[in-house]
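Quick one, tokens below:
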């Protein structure tokens, strides 16, 4: 098992402060009521215990002939009323804390999801889907317990300890010293044992995220697993991931769960020592230190010294338990505290991740019935540049890391209305080029221009609004067929969506669905074939009416006949538009204005179909079958 992250393990206090500020800064009035009700509950419990001394003193002094109605019963009734106030106060602050917790968790999930929409694609490339889902479920849930149970318990404990300390100090400083010595032992045990547990809880939460990621991956790939009889290997790998989580959990919980018994036993030992020292002091010194209270009672003639001291010793023993109990309760919550802090640290790590750079200040505007780039000038005015779809690469160099260069000095141009195709082996850099046009990643050197503008000067949202993309891996959302087509342009009318579906040749199968365009799609289109899903993705791109289309193996799951029909519709769609096509089927790129053959991140051949065939180079080999794409 990996060692815990020492650098991050040293910041639980900062994480706790940030979490408390996050939870209570926007709930100030509710927080104030929590403190008031906690104060009432704590004072009630402490005050009720003081009544015991009067009852015990009276019963010892007068026995069964005690003034039951004058002293005993009124004190019992007073205790009952005080405990009732405490119970109502306890119920009230727990109810309010539940409201604060749910509101805080809702706010946290909202902000997490909003932040996730602004994170760069690189973040999702380096984090599994299951790990990200774990942030919204496991990590957020740990904070629910912290806010609804642990924090109220800590506040109540702090107030109770303060009140009880004051009463015990008045009763007997000597016995209080015994209690404080035992409290020091509890604190030392908590620091030693609990500190070891905290180090491993962050590792535990990360291991839990890894397990969720693996389960999510295996669930999505069940068909592939069964096709290749990979069940045994999947079970073996799951056992490895599960063992890592089990090991992390055992180490973290081993320390957390032994802390409670240790502190409980120390509490019992404290109770015995206080009783022993109190009895010895009473026997040999005749008093325990309750001089001010004791003398006032004796001078009133209500009881003898022994009865008063015995009564107050009973009360002190109750206070010692009340003083020790909050510490025990907080130590029992230690498991929840460290888990919540580990979860909060993971969430804050995601929230603090640098968002995607929004890009430049050039925006997309609809001017005089046409789209145009709105470029701010130095004099405060704006220049409107018609949106045409002229894209050029000038000596572009790119790598996902500085050490591994993917594209080397790529130069190309695509004029409005031209269809540019990229062919080449897997890993040659075809998809990477289209990702750079979207600015999913930024280049190391060189320049990419769009209608003469450096794309770095264009706001990313506006840049992507002008690009229609069909990916090889289609993704459909829960909703109707019409909703999924309209995803390309949310203000598109039903008629425009249907026209786009007809262009993509999707209308035929859609009209044969149970509810036509109103048919619900669930599970990422599980009720559709792969080809039908891809047709909907193409229709979605068509309805966007973007001046630039990027088709990344857009017809890979479509039969040849349907592909020809789509090409006819796309020929109409491409009029006046720039189209980038990535394809393994070379028959789909024959009518391209220019075909770029890539190998190891470089363009080794370029030209139209006839020119490349005449060259009898790599493209010729691919087309004639002398060399196959892998």
């Amino acid at each position: 098992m990996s060692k815990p992250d020492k650098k991050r393990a040293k910041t639980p206090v900062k994480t706790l402060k940030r979490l408390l500020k996050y939870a209570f800064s926007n709930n100030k009035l509710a927080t104030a009521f929590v403190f008031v009700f906690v104060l009432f509950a704590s004072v009630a419990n402490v005050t009720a215990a003081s009544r015991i001394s009067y009852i015990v003193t009276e019963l010892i002094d007068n026995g069964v002939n005690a003034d039951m109605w004058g002293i005993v019963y009124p004190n019992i009734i007073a205790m009952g009323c005080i405990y009732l106030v405490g119970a109502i106060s306890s119920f009230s602050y727990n109810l309010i804390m539940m409201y604060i917790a749910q509101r805080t968790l809702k706010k946290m999930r909202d902000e997490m999801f909003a932040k996730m929409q602004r994170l760069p694609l690189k973040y999702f490339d380096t984090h599994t889907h299951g790990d990200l889902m774990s942030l919204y479920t496991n990590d957020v849930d740990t904070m629910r317990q912290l806010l609804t149970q642990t924090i109220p318990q800590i506040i109540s404990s702090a107030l109770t300890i303060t009140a009880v300390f004051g009463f015990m100090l008045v009763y007997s400083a000597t016995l209080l010293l015994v209690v404080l010595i035992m409290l020091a032992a509890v604190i030392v045990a908590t620091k030693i044992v609990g500190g070891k547990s905290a180090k491993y809880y962050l590792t535990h939460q990360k291991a839990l995220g890894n397990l969720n990621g693996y389960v999510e991956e295996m669930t999505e790939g069940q068909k592939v697993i069964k096709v290749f009889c990979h069940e045994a290997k999947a079970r073996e790998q799951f056992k490895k991931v599960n063992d890592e989580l089990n090991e992390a959990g055992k180490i973290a919980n081993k320390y957390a769960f032994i802390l409670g018994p240790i502190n409980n036993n120390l509490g019992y030992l404290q109770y015995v020592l206080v009783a022993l020292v109190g009895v010895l002091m009473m026997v040999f010194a005749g008093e325990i230190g309750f001089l001010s209270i004791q003398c006032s009672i004796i001078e009133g003639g209500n009881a003898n010294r022994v009865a008063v001291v015995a009564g107050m010793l009973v009360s002190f023993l109750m206070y010692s338990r009340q003083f020790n109990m909050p510490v025990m309760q907080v130590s029992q919550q230690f498991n929840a505290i460290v888990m919540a802090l580990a979860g909060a640290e993971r969430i804050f790590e995601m929230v603090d991740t640098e968002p995607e750079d929004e890009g430049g200040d050039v925006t997309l505007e609809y001017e005089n019935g046409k789209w145009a780039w709105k470029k701010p000038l130095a004099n405060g005015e704006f220049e409107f540049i018609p949106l045409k779809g002229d894209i050029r690469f000038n000596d572009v160099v790119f790598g996902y890391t500085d050490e591994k260069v993917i594209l080397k000095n790529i130069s190309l141009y695509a004029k409005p209305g031209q269809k540019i195709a990229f062919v080449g082996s897997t890993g040659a850099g075809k998809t990477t080029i289209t990702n750079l046009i979207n600015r999913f990643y930024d280049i190391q050197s060189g320049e990419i221009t769009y209608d003469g503008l450096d794309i770095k000067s264009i706001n990313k949202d506006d840049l992507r609004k002008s690009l229609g993309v069909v990916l090889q891996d289609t993704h459909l959302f829960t909703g109707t067929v019409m909703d999924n087509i309209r995803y390309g342009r949310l203000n598109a009318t039903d008629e425009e969506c249907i026209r786009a579906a007809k262009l993509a040749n999707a209308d035929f199968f859609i009209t044969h669905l149970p509810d036509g365009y109103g048919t619900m799609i669930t599970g990422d289109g599980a009720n559709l074939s792969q080809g039908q899903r891809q047709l909907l993705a193409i229709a979605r791109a068509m309805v966007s009416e973007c001046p630039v289309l990027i088709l990344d193996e857009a017809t890979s799951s479509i039969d040849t006949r349907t592909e020809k029909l789509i090409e006819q519709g796309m020929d109409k769609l491409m009029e006046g538009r720039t189209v980038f096509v990535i394809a393994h089927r070379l028959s789909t790129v024959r009518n391209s204005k220019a075909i770029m053959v890539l190998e190891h991140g470089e363009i080794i051949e370029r030209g139209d179909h006839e020119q490349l065939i005449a060259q009898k180079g790599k493209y010729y080999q691919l087309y004639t079958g002398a060399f196959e794409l892998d």
